[in-house]
Write a structure and sequence with these properties.
The chain is an alpha/beta fold and 331 residues long. The protein has two domains: 9-209, Spore Coat Polysaccharide Biosynthesis Protein SpsA, Chain A, CATH 3.90.550; 225-330, 2-Layer Sandwich (Translation Initiation Factor IF3). It is built from eleven helices and 14 strands.
């Protein structure tokens, strides 16, 4: 719908289901300006930073705009981007949020009724000088789940002495309403209950220690399809319980030691967890078996993956109904 057609789109499909992937390929046959990058990461932690970096690695244009999939754009948007392009200045844009009812209507951009507008702290929709963004190693891939990764980039650019500006001259983007299915109890995809707080604390450190370059320990924007294909052939399988000590022992004795193979881990509830016998022993002051909750083990294992295996191909599920955690990973 843009008045200026001088642009290309890199669309990153980071973890859609197979039916959606097939439908997307068919749809994009009608849009030759779109390059599709599909990452089969549907059973991994959502990592917006990695998705963006995979696209960033693929482009060589002078400038790039990072936008979310749920946006509607003003017909003059590309013309404004061209005027705002700058080698040392970064510009991010105000967004108008639509209600659920308004989002389902088909209108011209100017006729949508905006519920409210974003403030300066909403930093997601940003125009970058490509070389400048690459010079700080793109987005920090420590951030998984939701929150802080956009502000982190802006903060690191400012730490390097560059200007970051908030564009409010006219409203150029509308955010469509959508449900947040990833936070429901029945969703078995990876979810860390306090990861947003971890991200926020990590962001605070960026300000304190004046970080400029991210991803200095691990390479960034990495995706290897062959490694994901290899997940279909498990070489070694392990089962542990929620008894205290078993997961740390497995991490240090297997995950951090094994190389060049696919392993599968199942974490199940110990047969004595929360039994009457254990409760009676505790009341009598006798020695009991110590356990961790499955939620605690889930968080610990996901933190281990973020810390040590963020570039590895893996599949992860935590079924809160059956109380079982499963991990398949290419080491």
């Amino acid at each position: 719908m843009q008045n200026n057609k001088a642009f290309n789109v890199v669309l990153v499909d980071y973890g859609s289901t197979s039916n959606y992937r097939r439908g997307l390929i068919k749809l994009l046959e009608h849009y030759n300006f779109v390059t599709l990058i599909q990452c089969k990461t549907e059973q991994q932690l959502w990592c917006k930073s990695r998705a963006i970096n995979i696209a960033l690695r693929s482009i060589d244009t002078t400038s790039c705009f990072v936008g979310d999939i749920d946006m509607l754009y003003h017909p003059e948007f590309i013309n404004v981007l061209e005027k705002e392009t700058n080698k040392t200045k970064t510009t991010y844009f105000q967004v108008g949020f639509l209600s659920e009812i308004e989002s389902k209507k088909e209108k011209e951009f100017k006729n949508y009724e905006v519920a409210f507008k974003s403030k300066t702290e909403a930093t997601g929709m940003t125009l970058y000088n490509t070389a400048l963004l690459k010079s700080i190693n793109g987005y920090d891939e420590f951030y998984n789940g939701w929150g802080s990764e956009d502000t982190d980039v802006h903060m690191r650019l400012q730490n390097a002495g560059h200007q970051v500006c908030f564009y409010t001259k006219q409203l150029l983007m509308l955010h469509q309403w959508h449900p947040k299915n990833y936070r429901t109890k029945n969703d078995v995809t990876p979810f860390h209950s306090s990861l947003e707080q971890v991200n926020a604390a990590y962001l605070d450190l960026v300000s304190v220690i004046k970080t400029v370059k991210a991803n200095t320990v691990y390479n960034w924007g990495v995706y290897n399809q062959a490694h994901y294909n290899a997940l279909e052939t498990v070489i070694e399988s392990y089962t542990i319980s929620n008894k205290i000590g078993e997961l740390p022992a497995f991490i240090n004795g297997v995950l951090l030691v094994k190389r060049d193979l696919v392993i599968q881990l199942e974490i199940i509830v110990h047969k004595d967890y929360k039994t009457t016998k254990q409760k009676a022993k505790a009341l009598l002051g006798k020695k009991t078996i110590a356990f961790k909750s499955m939620q605690s083990l889930n968080n610990s294992l996901l933190e281990c993956i973020i810390r040590n295996f963020r570039n590895q191909a893996y599949q992860y599920q935590y079924n809160r109904i059956t109380n079982r955690i499963s991990l398949t990973i290419k080491l």
